[in-house]
Write a structure and sequence with these properties.
With about 210 residues, the chain is an alpha+beta fold. Helix content is about 40%, strand content about 15%. It has two domains: about 70 residues; about 110 residues, Cytidine Deaminase, domain 2. A five-stranded mixed β-sheet has the order 2-1-3-4-5, with helices on both faces. α8 links the parallel β3 and β4. α7 packs across α8. The N and C termini lie far apart (about 60 Å).
Length: about 210
Protein backbone atom coordinates (compact mmCIF):
# COMPACT_ATOMS: atom_id res chain seq x y z
CA UNK A 1 0.00 0.00 0.00
CA UNK A 2 1.41 3.36 -1.02
CA UNK A 3 2.18 5.68 1.88
CA UNK A 4 0.45 9.08 1.79
CA UNK A 5 2.97 11.89 2.24
CA UNK A 6 1.98 14.88 4.36
CA UNK A 7 3.84 17.63 2.52
CA UNK A 8 2.71 20.33 4.94
CA UNK A 9 4.74 18.72 7.71
CA UNK A 10 7.91 18.53 5.63
CA UNK A 11 10.81 20.86 6.33
CA UNK A 12 11.74 23.34 3.61
CA UNK A 13 15.00 21.51 3.02
CA UNK A 14 13.16 18.19 2.62
CA UNK A 15 10.77 19.66 0.05
CA UNK A 16 13.68 21.05 -1.95
CA UNK A 17 15.50 17.71 -1.87
CA UNK A 18 12.33 16.01 -3.12
CA UNK A 19 12.15 18.54 -5.94
CA UNK A 20 15.70 17.77 -7.08
CA UNK A 21 15.37 14.01 -6.44
CA UNK A 22 18.06 13.97 -3.76
CA UNK A 23 15.95 12.91 -0.76
CA UNK A 24 18.51 10.48 0.64
CA UNK A 25 21.64 12.50 -0.08
CA UNK A 26 22.97 13.96 3.17
CA UNK A 27 25.69 15.85 1.29
CA UNK A 28 23.12 17.89 -0.61
CA UNK A 29 21.35 18.90 2.61
CA UNK A 30 24.61 19.93 4.24
CA UNK A 31 25.69 22.00 1.25
CA UNK A 32 22.34 23.80 0.93
CA UNK A 33 22.19 24.57 4.65
CA UNK A 34 25.76 25.88 4.61
CA UNK A 35 25.00 28.16 1.67
CA UNK A 36 21.49 29.35 2.47
CA UNK A 37 20.50 28.13 5.93
CA UNK A 38 16.81 27.21 5.90
CA UNK A 39 15.96 30.12 3.60
CA UNK A 40 14.71 28.03 0.70
CA UNK A 41 12.92 31.08 -0.72
CA UNK A 42 16.36 32.51 -1.50
CA UNK A 43 17.08 29.50 -3.72
CA UNK A 44 13.70 29.30 -5.41
CA UNK A 45 13.03 33.00 -5.90
CA UNK A 46 16.37 34.70 -6.45
CA UNK A 47 19.10 32.27 -7.51
CA UNK A 48 20.38 32.40 -11.08
CA UNK A 49 20.84 29.28 -13.19
CA UNK A 50 24.59 29.50 -12.59
CA UNK A 51 24.09 29.66 -8.81
CA UNK A 52 21.67 26.75 -8.89
CA UNK A 53 23.97 24.47 -10.88
CA UNK A 54 26.74 25.17 -8.35
CA UNK A 55 24.70 23.18 -5.80
CA UNK A 56 25.51 19.49 -5.73
CA UNK A 57 22.66 17.49 -7.24
CA UNK A 58 21.30 20.35 -9.38
CA UNK A 59 22.27 20.16 -13.04
CA UNK A 60 21.22 22.45 -15.92
CA UNK A 61 17.96 20.55 -16.50
CA UNK A 62 16.93 20.68 -12.84
CA UNK A 63 17.95 24.34 -12.60
CA UNK A 64 15.69 25.10 -15.57
CA UNK A 65 12.82 23.28 -13.86
CA UNK A 66 13.28 25.32 -10.69
CA UNK A 67 13.35 28.58 -12.67
CA UNK A 68 10.22 27.48 -14.58
CA UNK A 69 8.54 26.74 -11.23
CA UNK A 70 9.51 30.26 -10.09
CA UNK A 71 7.88 31.75 -13.18
CA UNK A 72 4.66 29.81 -12.54
CA UNK A 73 4.53 31.17 -8.98
CA UNK A 74 5.17 34.70 -10.25
CA UNK A 75 2.29 34.41 -12.70
CA UNK A 76 -0.05 33.10 -10.03
CA UNK A 77 0.63 36.27 -8.04
CA UNK A 78 0.73 38.53 -11.08
CA UNK A 79 -1.06 41.86 -10.81
CA UNK A 80 -4.60 41.44 -12.17
CA UNK A 81 -6.09 43.80 -14.73
CA UNK A 82 -6.68 47.21 -13.18
CA UNK A 83 -10.12 47.64 -14.66
CA UNK A 84 -12.87 47.65 -12.02
CA UNK A 85 -10.39 47.28 -9.14
CA UNK A 86 -12.09 49.38 -6.51
CA UNK A 87 -10.06 49.79 -3.33
CA UNK A 88 -12.14 49.20 -0.21
CA UNK A 89 -9.44 47.95 2.18
CA UNK A 90 -5.66 47.58 2.59
CA UNK A 91 -6.07 43.92 1.64
CA UNK A 92 -7.31 45.03 -1.79
CA UNK A 93 -4.11 47.01 -2.24
CA UNK A 94 -1.90 44.14 -1.10
CA UNK A 95 -3.62 41.68 -3.44
CA UNK A 96 -3.11 44.10 -6.31
CA UNK A 97 0.62 44.74 -5.85
CA UNK A 98 2.00 41.65 -4.10
CA UNK A 99 2.87 39.82 -7.31
CA UNK A 100 5.24 42.58 -8.38
CA UNK A 101 6.64 43.67 -5.03
CA UNK A 102 6.61 40.81 -2.54
CA UNK A 103 9.92 39.18 -3.53
CA UNK A 104 11.82 42.13 -4.99
CA UNK A 105 15.42 42.41 -3.78
CA UNK A 106 15.46 46.23 -3.76
CA UNK A 107 12.91 48.77 -2.58
CA UNK A 108 10.33 50.15 -4.98
CA UNK A 109 8.07 53.06 -4.11
CA UNK A 110 4.81 53.22 -6.07
CA UNK A 111 1.52 55.06 -5.95
CA UNK A 112 -1.93 53.86 -6.90
CA UNK A 113 -3.77 56.49 -8.92
CA UNK A 114 -7.43 56.47 -7.87
CA UNK A 115 -10.52 58.12 -9.32
CA UNK A 116 -13.32 59.72 -7.30
CA UNK A 117 -14.81 56.26 -6.59
CA UNK A 118 -11.41 54.89 -5.49
CA UNK A 119 -11.10 52.71 -8.56
CA UNK A 120 -7.50 52.16 -9.66
CA UNK A 121 -6.66 54.04 -12.84
CA UNK A 122 -2.97 53.22 -12.85
CA UNK A 123 0.01 52.13 -10.76
CA UNK A 124 3.02 54.43 -11.08
CA UNK A 125 6.58 53.60 -10.04
CA UNK A 126 8.03 56.68 -8.37
CA UNK A 127 11.38 55.48 -7.10
CA UNK A 128 13.65 52.44 -7.11
CA UNK A 129 16.20 52.31 -4.34
CA UNK A 130 18.71 50.04 -2.66
CA UNK A 131 18.42 46.92 -0.54
CA UNK A 132 16.84 48.83 2.32
CA UNK A 133 15.78 52.27 1.14
CA UNK A 134 14.21 54.21 -1.70
CA UNK A 135 14.57 57.97 -2.05
CA UNK A 136 11.20 59.67 -2.46
CA UNK A 137 10.25 63.34 -2.58
CA UNK A 138 6.63 64.57 -2.32
CA UNK A 139 7.21 66.68 -5.43
CA UNK A 140 7.77 63.58 -7.57
CA UNK A 141 4.75 61.84 -6.08
CA UNK A 142 2.30 64.67 -6.65
CA UNK A 143 3.70 65.69 -10.03
CA UNK A 144 2.77 62.20 -11.16
CA UNK A 145 -0.58 62.28 -9.34
CA UNK A 146 -1.53 65.61 -10.92
CA UNK A 147 -0.38 64.52 -14.37
CA UNK A 148 -2.49 61.35 -14.07
CA UNK A 149 -5.47 63.35 -12.75
CA UNK A 150 -5.72 61.42 -9.51
CA UNK A 151 -8.58 62.13 -7.12
CA UNK A 152 -6.80 60.22 -4.34
CA UNK A 153 -3.61 58.17 -4.06
CA UNK A 154 -2.28 55.28 -2.03
CA UNK A 155 1.46 54.91 -1.50
CA UNK A 156 3.02 51.45 -1.59
CA UNK A 157 6.56 50.25 -1.08
CA UNK A 158 8.24 46.95 -0.31
CA UNK A 159 10.75 45.92 2.33
CA UNK A 160 13.13 43.35 0.80
CA UNK A 161 13.92 42.10 4.31
CA UNK A 162 10.32 40.91 4.59
CA UNK A 163 9.83 42.87 7.83
CA UNK A 164 6.89 45.28 7.48
CA UNK A 165 7.77 47.42 10.50
CA UNK A 166 7.98 51.05 9.28
CA UNK A 167 11.27 52.89 9.63
CA UNK A 168 11.54 56.48 10.84
CA UNK A 169 12.09 57.47 7.21
CA UNK A 170 8.90 55.64 6.20
CA UNK A 171 6.90 57.54 8.80
CA UNK A 172 8.54 60.85 7.91
CA UNK A 173 7.84 60.62 4.18
CA UNK A 174 4.26 59.56 4.89
CA UNK A 175 3.67 62.60 7.08
CA UNK A 176 5.14 64.84 4.37
CA UNK A 177 2.93 63.22 1.72
CA UNK A 178 -0.17 63.79 3.85
CA UNK A 179 0.66 67.50 4.22
CA UNK A 180 1.54 67.91 0.54
CA UNK A 181 -1.68 66.18 -0.46
CA UNK A 182 -3.71 68.59 1.64
CA UNK A 183 -2.08 71.50 -0.18
CA UNK A 184 -2.77 70.21 -3.70
CA UNK A 185 -6.16 68.66 -2.96
CA UNK A 186 -5.17 65.03 -3.57
CA UNK A 187 -5.60 62.92 -0.45
CA UNK A 188 -3.15 60.20 0.57
CA UNK A 189 -5.59 57.51 1.72
CA UNK A 190 -3.01 55.03 2.99
CA UNK A 191 0.58 53.87 2.80
CA UNK A 192 1.13 50.12 2.52
CA UNK A 193 4.42 48.35 3.28
CA UNK A 194 4.71 44.99 1.53
CA UNK A 195 6.75 42.22 3.16
CA UNK A 196 6.96 38.46 2.71
CA UNK A 197 3.33 37.36 2.31
CA UNK A 198 2.24 40.17 4.64
CA UNK A 199 1.64 43.90 4.72
CA UNK A 200 1.32 46.85 7.08
CA UNK A 201 -1.23 49.62 6.59
CA UNK A 202 -0.39 53.04 8.03
CA UNK A 203 -4.13 53.75 8.15
CA UNK A 204 -4.91 50.62 10.15
CA UNK A 205 -1.99 51.31 12.48
CA UNK A 206 -3.27 54.83 13.14
CA UNK A 207 -0.11 56.46 11.77
CA UNK A 208 -2.19 58.52 9.33
Amino acid sequence: MKMIINYRNKRNIDLLKMMINEENNVGVEEEILNRFGDNIAEILLHSTELELTAIKGIGPKKASQIIAFREIIRRLYEVPALENNKITSPTDVFNLVKGNLMHEEIEHFQILILDTKNKVKNIENISTGSLNSSIVHPREVFNTAIRRRAANIIAVHNHPSGDTKPSREDISITERLVKAGELVGIKLLDHIIVGNCSYLSFKEEGII
